[in-house]
Amino acid sequence: MNPILRAAYLLNTLTTLFFLLINFSCSQHAEENSSLDLETINVKEAFDKKEKLLLSEVASNIEYIPLETNEKCFIDNYARIAIDKDFIVVVSFRQIFLFDRISGDFVREVGAYGKGPGEYTATTHQPFDAERRIIYAVRGKDILEYNLDGSLNRTITSPFDFLGLTFTMINTGIYASYMPNVLGDSPEFLFLFDAEGNEVKVVPNVNFYEREGKLFNFYGKEAEFYKHDNRNYFKEIWNDTLFILSPDTLVPHYVFNAGDMSINFELRGKQDARDLMTDLLRIQNIFESTDNIFFSFSHNQQIYAAYHNKSNSETKISNYTEFGDNGFVDDILDIGHLVPQGISNQNELYGLIIPDSLTLTYLKKGEPYANGRSISLDSNPVVGIAKLH
């Protein structure tokens, strides 16, 4: 990249420089952040002493809702869900489905995959705004906002040439979109723009790398946003710091210390980065309640559920090897286990359970479910919803 162009981005404005310095200072390992007096989530320490996590530690009850299965609503792999007071929102690559929150009955498809009016070309990594009750999808540089009744609420066109699949509305009318540095020389880190498509701010990137060879890799969801207590939070997988995000500031909140198992930006351009990351702790799906910060991470192709207790600063990581992934063991109804995907506005921890050969026996302990629905290996997933203390 041209040095003059890079310097221009780094010296954009004093406010942008503040973003830059905060981001730069917190891109190092946790031990280097001690001067910021941040609380540390000791992931490596907890990983070394993994334990069975009981659901009753964080929740008072749980319900299981098998989703209706038919040719109109068969859910693809790698689906993401969100829980509304009335609906279960299920999103995969080319699907946006609504199911009834109580019965699990299929309600409707929202939008459609395609290039026609009101159609989307991609779903997003974080598709549901629970406060506004809006489902997001994208078409090129456009954000499509769908209402839960299936109608198109509005279309927002990004002023930038690139719109990532990871974005959020950080306050009324201001959107933030993450820019994955795929080629190694991207000058942008975050884009901020308003609902009219006007640029608000560009947060510059400070991490650059040389690619090994001509190939480049995407790593799925490389960053994530979440909301809690009227604040917005942001974390990138290449960075150990969880930030509080507003239109004017990017302030460190917590540091995830994975020690020698942490993922850092030096890996980003390596040809064997995917293989190297397999043995490291890729932290993902972060969300927060009044008492805990929940998260999960992948290691050696397994998913581990974890949480950090804010009051006693204790971090726990699951180790329940009877299943392929490691979730909270249901000691309330004695049905399976739960790897959480998020927290609803009703203070509910929720996750999606695939009825494969390892879990089907345990799930059948709960039959019959809503409307007498039973499950089999060919069924749509089961949604687990646990009410937090």
The first-to-last residue Cα distance is 52 Å
Question: Radius of gyration, rounded?
Answer: 21 Å
Report the oligomer: single chain
CATH architecture: 7 Propeller
Beta-strand proportion: 35-45%
How much is the average pLDDT?
89
Overall geometry: globular
Q: What is the number of E strands?
A: 27
Helix proportion: under 10%
Question: Going across the major beta sheet, what is the strand order?
Answer: 1-18-17-16-15
Largest sheet: 5 strands, mixed
**Low-pLDDT regions:** 1-35
Q: State the CATH topology.
A: Methylamine Dehydrogenase, Chain H
CATH class: Mainly Beta
* Tally of structural domains: 1
Number of helices: 5
- Structural class designation: mainly beta
Primary descriptors:
mainly beta; 5 helices; Methylamine Dehydrogenase, Chain H; disordered N terminus; 27 strands; 389 residues; globular
